[in-house]
Design a protein that fits this description.
The protein is of the alpha+beta class. It has one domain: Aspartate carbamoyltransferase regulatory subunit, N-terminal domain (Alpha-Beta Plaits, 2-Layer Sandwich), CATH 3.30.70.140. The chain is built from 2 helices and 5 strands. Strands 2-3-1-4-5 form a 5-stranded antiparallel β-sheet, with helices on one face. A hairpin with a 3-residue loop joins strand 2 and strand 3. The radius of gyration is 12 Å and the shape is globular. The two termini are 22 Å apart.
Length: 94
Amino acid sequence: MEKYPKIKNGVTIDHIAPGKALDVLKALGMTPESGNPMVVLINVKSVKMGKKDLVKLENVTLDPAKVVAKVKAIAPKATVNLIKNYEVVKKVRA
């Protein structure tokens, strides 16, 4: 599997259906104007899914369970990870 830029602190949303990352961001109310760095990968290779989208939000504090609740209809297979100091400290699957 390919490696994507790591974030120090924030939230990652993985296993998003291809082409749905921007819908996930919209559901969360996240925009580039927030000023926080974000990585949005669309249609990347995935061993499990063939292709997927992935969102990484740097310096954002969101409860993974609440994120799952907001994006479950858009990304029913999503995994939300809370990242602190480059490590996953909490993982919630939809």
